[in-house]
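Handout, page 2. Input:
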Amino acid sequence: MARYKLEAQELATALTELSGWEVRDGKLHKTYKFGSFAQAIGWMVSVAVVADKIDHHPEWSNVYNRVTVNLVTHDLGNVISNLDVELARKMDELAQV
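Output:
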């Protein structure tokens, strides 16, 4: 999939569709809270499979049942791209399972 920087209006539209996501320090940002550490890690593994398939990897950290995520496209100069939005949508979808 081709990577491209989102224009301001594209990003604003995407944010209306991405519950809980915001732009923080130039990156798409969200913190997920799960029922347990095991659920948080299981979700991270599921996301890792998807991220590897689309060759787009998150900046994230885990503390107990929380996972903090920042998405930015480094190879486009650290901007928010279509791949960041795609991965955010998939993360939200996997978190609902």
